[in-house]
Amino acid sequence: MRIKNTYENCKTLIEAGRTMDTMLDMLSLFLMVGAITNDQYIELTGMLPVNDLEV
After folding, report:
1. CA–CA separation, 19 vs 49, rounded Å?
2. How do residues 11-23 score in pLDDT, each as one tens digit?
3. Cβ-based neighbours of 14, under 8 Å, separated by 6 or more
4. Do 48 and 19 form a contact (C-beta atoms < 8 A)?
5. CA-CA distance, 14 to 40, in Å (whole number)?
6. What is the pLDDT of residue 9?
7. How many CB atoms within 10 Å of residue 25?
8. Is the pLDDT at 55 greater than 60, yes or no?
9. Whole-prediction pTM value?
10. Could you tell me if 5 and 34 are in contact, meaning their C-beta atoms sit under 8 angstroms apart?
11. Which one of 1, 4, 31, 52 counts the least CB within 10 Å of its CB?
């Protein structure tokens, strides 16, 4: 069994509609600790539903 990386796991959750209110915060944290790249962060945040992006 292949273990998915952080980016693949987040992308799978977002595509399945299984996001939570803290998803944007979690993606920011993953970016800060180097678990995802800046390009991956931009892609994943662009996939989030609009209501998850409200501040």
Report:
1. 8
2. 999 999 998 888 9
3. 23, 44, 47, 48
4. yes
5. 13
6. 95
7. 10
8. no
9. 0.83
10. no
11. 1
Other CB atoms closer than 10 Å to residue 8's CB: what's the count? 13
Neighbours of 10 (CB within 10 A): 25
Give CA separation, 31 vs 16, 20, 35, 46, 52, in Å. 21, 18, 6, 15, 17
Token readout for 48 is 């989030």
Task: Using the structure block, give the residue that is written with the tokens 């945040």.
Answer: 45
Tokens of residue 54, six digits = 């409200």
48 neighbors 14 (Cβ within 8 angstroms):
yes
User: What per-residue confidence (pLDDT) applies to 38?
Assistant: 97
> Burial, 24: exposed, middle or buried (Cβ in 10 Å; 0-12, 13-18, 19+)?
middle
